[in-house]
Specification:
The structure is a homodimer of 196-residue chains. Chain A is 70% helix and 0% strand. Chain A contains ten helices and no strands. Chain A has helices at residues 5-10, 13-28, 35-42, 46-49, 56-76, 84-101, 103-110, 118-145, 154-167, 178-191. The relative contact order of chain A is 0.12. Chain A binds a DNA duplex (16 and 16 nucleotides) through residues 13, 34-36, 44-48, 50-51, 55-56.
Chain lengths: 196, 196
DNA sequence: CCTACCGATCGGTAGG
DNA sequence: CCTACCGATCGGTAGG
């Protein structure tokens, strides 16, 4: 997400550090971004960055978990009274919306997390598994309601759903109408490419 | 692809260098892999690596273009006498087969290419566009044959097909039956998740 | 948030 | 493929 200059000025140095770190990790990769690059983005000395963080990997962990928060929060807002099929359409909208509006954080969540180690890595993987389970549950509910076929393989269906949602970080652009794209993707997954 | 030790011994140093570079770039990322890491993998000194390459980025370019070769070659082997719908099923098999059997090269092709610069980057992007066009043509042929719906959005359909194929590098494992997974994916894309 | 500094490592070259 | 070496940069610390 692009942040206006006056908004950045009002943010705390710590928050600006996270913003810039997400952007640079997404653009150049975690290993392609130095602490000096982060300091330059903030207009301070490299050593001063360590007044705000314990180490570089701490930033990576924070951003990866911010990605977890964003994707889970988007699912939380789904209408509980909509049909399961409808909720799946809205889930695709929610997912693509996070990818589009928080592309930096989403890119770290999708790609750079692999450089995490220790407990932060375990926490990340747990959040990702939980997200996958939530999508799987929505699909299962769709089968139960009769909107999806009874012989649907939930594992493959979940992988397909998330493949469409996740790979979007490679081609989504600011000007893309994400709701339109999400509806088209869900319609494709639901109805298939063959004539009905 | 895992290479047997005796096979590695029979390969030229240059070829072993490419093998190890693909593996390390895929595992640790391009910026997370040093020339010293490559030298260690070969059991030689860092400076000796430069007897074989002009620079680190040259290896990245070579591996990324090897990915292009692998994906295009897999498509080349498609049966021309099969129906377009059947060719799409085989194209998904071909794509997943490359991802599974050349996971290192595929990972560089899918992820690490973004650290390419200059002409190598342009060549990569041209190959990727050409690959996307080949998939799009297969889909168009499917519409023409009547196997796919006439109102199919070829852009979204191509993105969906490649999303399933590309994201597979994150979850495919050696023991996965890729032909089975590819057939399941293509059946899902063709018939959809809703009952027919 | 600064100056000053640390040992280790970076990609790469010279010359054999 | 080696020894020896280059200047630049790495993540990080001490002490103010």
């Amino acid at each position: 997400m692009t942040i206006a200059t006056d908004t950045l000025r009002r943010m705390s140095t710590r928050d600006r550090l996270s913003q810039h770190a997400a952007r640079l990790f997404a653009e150049r990769g975690y290993h392609g971004t130095s602490v000096a690059d982060l300091a330059d983005a903030l207009g301070i000395r490299k050593s001063s960055v360590y007044s705000h963080i314990g180490g570089k990997e701490e930033l990576l962990a924070e951003i990866a978990l911010a990605g977890a928060d964003a994707f889970h929060a988007a699912l939380d807002e789904l209408q509980g009274d909509a049909s399961p099929g409808e909720r799946l359409r809205l889930a695709m909208r929610a997912h693509l919306s996070v990818v589009n509006h928080q592309l930096d954080v989403a890119t770290v969540w999708l790609q750079e997390w692999r450089y995490l180690s220790g407990p932060a890595r375990e926490r990340f993987l747990a959040e990702r598994r939980r997200y996958e389970q939530r999508i799987r549950t929505l699909l299962r509910d769709g089968v139960r309601s009769g909107e999806l076929r009874t012989d649907l393989d939930l594992g493959h269906a979940m992988l397909a759903f998330l493949s469409l949602g996740n790979w979007a970080y490679t081609w989504l652009r600011q000007e893309t109408n994400v709701d339109h794209a999400a509806d088209a993707f869900w319609a494709l997954l639901r109805d298939g490419m063959a004539p009905r």
